[in-house]
Design a protein that fits this description.
Low-confidence stretches: none
Distance between the termini: 25 Å
Radius of gyration: 17 Å
Strand content: 5-15%
Helix content: 55-70%
Shape: globular
Number of strands: 4
Largest sheet: 2 strands, parallel
Number of helices: 5
Structural class: mainly alpha
Mean pLDDT: 94
Order of helices and strands: EHHHEHHEE
Protein backbone atom coordinates (compact mmCIF):
# COMPACT_ATOMS: atom_id res chain seq x y z
CA UNK A 1 0.00 0.00 0.00
CA UNK A 2 1.49 3.39 -0.99
CA UNK A 3 2.25 5.97 1.66
CA UNK A 4 0.03 9.03 1.37
CA UNK A 5 1.63 12.22 2.68
CA UNK A 6 -0.21 14.20 5.33
CA UNK A 7 -1.86 17.32 3.98
CA UNK A 8 -3.06 20.11 6.24
CA UNK A 9 -6.08 22.34 5.85
CA UNK A 10 -7.05 25.25 8.10
CA UNK A 11 -10.55 25.18 9.56
CA UNK A 12 -11.48 28.20 7.44
CA UNK A 13 -10.78 26.18 4.26
CA UNK A 14 -12.84 23.29 5.63
CA UNK A 15 -15.62 25.81 6.29
CA UNK A 16 -15.47 27.04 2.68
CA UNK A 17 -15.46 23.45 1.42
CA UNK A 18 -18.62 22.64 3.38
CA UNK A 19 -20.41 25.79 2.26
CA UNK A 20 -19.60 25.39 -1.44
CA UNK A 21 -20.45 21.69 -1.35
CA UNK A 22 -23.75 22.23 0.45
CA UNK A 23 -24.75 25.01 -1.98
CA UNK A 24 -23.91 22.81 -4.99
CA UNK A 25 -25.75 19.85 -3.45
CA UNK A 26 -28.83 21.99 -2.74
CA UNK A 27 -28.78 23.27 -6.31
CA UNK A 28 -28.38 19.79 -7.81
CA UNK A 29 -30.68 17.78 -5.53
CA UNK A 30 -33.32 20.33 -4.53
CA UNK A 31 -33.13 22.97 -7.29
CA UNK A 32 -32.23 25.74 -4.83
CA UNK A 33 -30.12 28.42 -6.50
CA UNK A 34 -30.91 31.55 -4.47
CA UNK A 35 -28.81 32.22 -1.35
CA UNK A 36 -31.81 33.25 0.75
CA UNK A 37 -33.79 30.18 -0.28
CA UNK A 38 -30.76 28.04 0.54
CA UNK A 39 -30.51 29.62 3.99
CA UNK A 40 -34.24 29.13 4.65
CA UNK A 41 -33.98 25.50 3.51
CA UNK A 42 -30.96 24.89 5.74
CA UNK A 43 -32.69 26.42 8.76
CA UNK A 44 -35.78 24.31 8.14
CA UNK A 45 -34.08 20.99 7.34
CA UNK A 46 -30.75 21.34 9.15
CA UNK A 47 -27.98 18.85 8.54
CA UNK A 48 -30.44 16.04 7.85
CA UNK A 49 -30.62 17.25 4.25
CA UNK A 50 -26.82 17.29 3.91
CA UNK A 51 -25.69 14.08 5.61
CA UNK A 52 -24.68 12.48 2.30
CA UNK A 53 -22.28 15.20 1.09
CA UNK A 54 -20.88 15.67 4.61
CA UNK A 55 -20.06 11.96 4.85
CA UNK A 56 -18.50 12.00 1.37
CA UNK A 57 -16.32 14.99 2.30
CA UNK A 58 -15.06 13.27 5.44
CA UNK A 59 -14.41 10.05 3.57
CA UNK A 60 -12.43 11.91 0.90
CA UNK A 61 -10.43 13.88 3.49
CA UNK A 62 -9.56 10.60 5.20
CA UNK A 63 -8.51 8.95 1.94
CA UNK A 64 -6.34 11.95 1.07
CA UNK A 65 -4.86 12.00 4.59
CA UNK A 66 -5.97 15.60 5.17
CA UNK A 67 -5.70 16.88 8.72
CA UNK A 68 -7.75 19.91 9.73
CA UNK A 69 -5.73 22.39 11.78
CA UNK A 70 -6.91 25.31 13.87
CA UNK A 71 -6.75 28.73 12.25
CA UNK A 72 -4.10 30.98 13.75
CA UNK A 73 -5.86 33.97 15.25
CA UNK A 74 -4.02 37.28 15.13
CA UNK A 75 -5.94 40.43 14.32
CA UNK A 76 -2.72 42.39 13.79
CA UNK A 77 -1.24 39.86 11.36
CA UNK A 78 -4.56 39.52 9.54
CA UNK A 79 -4.84 43.29 9.13
CA UNK A 80 -1.24 43.60 7.96
CA UNK A 81 -1.61 40.88 5.33
CA UNK A 82 -4.91 42.29 4.06
CA UNK A 83 -3.24 45.67 3.59
CA UNK A 84 0.22 44.60 2.38
CA UNK A 85 -0.84 41.87 -0.06
CA UNK A 86 -4.33 43.16 -1.02
CA UNK A 87 -6.07 39.96 0.06
CA UNK A 88 -9.68 39.50 1.04
CA UNK A 89 -10.07 38.61 4.74
CA UNK A 90 -10.65 34.88 4.25
CA UNK A 91 -7.60 34.53 2.01
CA UNK A 92 -5.55 36.57 4.46
CA UNK A 93 -6.65 34.23 7.27
CA UNK A 94 -5.44 31.25 5.25
CA UNK A 95 -2.08 32.97 4.61
CA UNK A 96 -1.67 33.86 8.31
CA UNK A 97 -2.40 30.27 9.31
CA UNK A 98 0.02 28.85 6.75
CA UNK A 99 2.80 31.15 7.96
CA UNK A 100 2.12 30.26 11.61
CA UNK A 101 2.37 26.52 10.95
CA UNK A 102 5.29 26.80 8.54
CA UNK A 103 3.22 25.63 5.57
CA UNK A 104 5.05 26.77 2.44
CA UNK A 105 3.05 25.16 -0.38
CA UNK A 106 -0.62 25.69 -1.05
CA UNK A 107 -2.84 23.92 -3.58
CA UNK A 108 -5.27 26.46 -4.98
CA UNK A 109 -6.61 27.91 -8.19
CA UNK A 110 -6.72 31.34 -6.54
CA UNK A 111 -3.91 33.40 -8.08
CA UNK A 112 -4.10 35.96 -5.26
CA UNK A 113 -1.93 33.65 -3.15
CA UNK A 114 0.92 34.13 -5.64
CA UNK A 115 1.45 37.57 -4.04
CA UNK A 116 2.40 35.91 -0.75
CA UNK A 117 6.19 35.48 -0.63
CA UNK A 118 6.22 32.56 1.83
CA UNK A 119 3.75 30.46 -0.23
CA UNK A 120 4.43 28.38 -3.30
CA UNK A 121 1.17 27.95 -5.22
CA UNK A 122 0.41 24.68 -7.02
CA UNK A 123 -0.71 23.53 -9.51
Amino acid sequence: MPIVPITFSPVIVYNELLYVTFRAYARHKYGIVNYHKFKEFFIEKGMDAFEEPLEEIHQLLGELNVRIIKDHQSVEELRDIIIKYRLLPTDAQIAVTCRYYGISTIATLDNDFKRIPWLKVVP
